[in-house]
Amino acid sequence: MSLFKRKEVKPAKTKKAKTVAKPAAPKKKTSKTKKTSKSGTSKKPATAKKPAEKKTSKSTSKSGKPKTSATSRKTGSNIGKVYRGRTKYIDKENKLERNYVVVVDDGNNVTISKLKSIKIVDINGKNADKALVEINSTRYGLTKRTGVDFQRFDKNRMSGKELNLKDKDVFPEGKERFKLGSHDTNRAIKHTEKGQKKGDD
Q1: pLDDT reading at 56 higher than 80
Q2: Which of 47, 125, 189, 198 is the most buried (most CB within 10 A)?
Q3: pLDDT tens profile 137-178
Q4: 120 Cβ contact list (under 8 Å, min separation 6)
Q5: Across-strand partners of 83?
């Protein structure tokens, strides 16, 4: 046996080559042509909204004709006009003629009320005749204080037909003498409407 031990020669360690990562290529910038919303969808250019057109609806009846309200029927072209009428065809008075005002006009026939002079006044000089509503007599060239009576007349007493302004027997002049102002007309209509309700009761 030899006195010296042999040294075991270990194989030299080989260093592993380190792999160096290549630098990432710079990203190319792309020009954004469209703006994207948060959801990722492209927004369309805003367009001006057209103003909403108002729809004008006209109420029509079953026959297809536009409906007319009660007020339009009550306010015909002859409402408020004063005509000279022959009383025997209209009223039971002995007076030959008097002035009548149109309070209803349906386009063909009329309803009228008579004009009468005011004879009853209170201590303040105001009209005290409840059957009459006073109108502005000076405005229409009337010599006496005048009011519209509550009674309404719509038929010819002789023929029984409805009153028509074209009937020369009833309205010989064929044309109005004057027309009441809007204030007097409205008061006359309301007064005669109340009188009509009382008569019905």
Answers
A1: no
A2: 189
A3: 999 999 999 999 999 999 999 999 999 999 999 999 989 999
A4: 127, 128, 129
A5: 100
Report whether pLDDT(25) > 80: no
Q: Which CATH number is associated with domain 71-200?
A: 2.30.30.110
Domain residues of the chain, as ranges? 71-200
CB-CB neighbours of 129 under 10 Å: 15
Residue 73 backbone dihedrals phi, psi, to 5 degrees? -70, -30
pLDDT at 59 over 90: no
Question: What backbone torsions phi and psi does residue 188 show, to the nearest 5 degrees?
Answer: -65, -45
8 Å CB contact between 109 and 154:
yes
| Nearby residues of 87 by Cβ (< 8 Å), 6 or more positions away | 93, 94, 95, 96, 97, 98
**Pairing between β-strand 146-149 and β-strand 178-179 as defined by DSSP bridges:** unpaired
CB atoms within 10 A of CB 165: 20
Dihedral sign for Cα atoms in the order 169, 175, 178, 182: positive
Q: CA geometry: angle at 135 spanning 76 and 196, to 5°?
A: 60
What's the pLDDT tens digit per position in 61-79? 444 444 444 443 444 699 9
Q: Which two tokens stand for residue 41?
A: 């969808």
Burial class, 111, CB count within 10 angstroms (exposed 0-12 / middle 13-18 / buried 19+) = buried
Helix-strand-coil split of the chain, %, nearest 5: 15, 20, 65
* Type of residue numbered 198: K
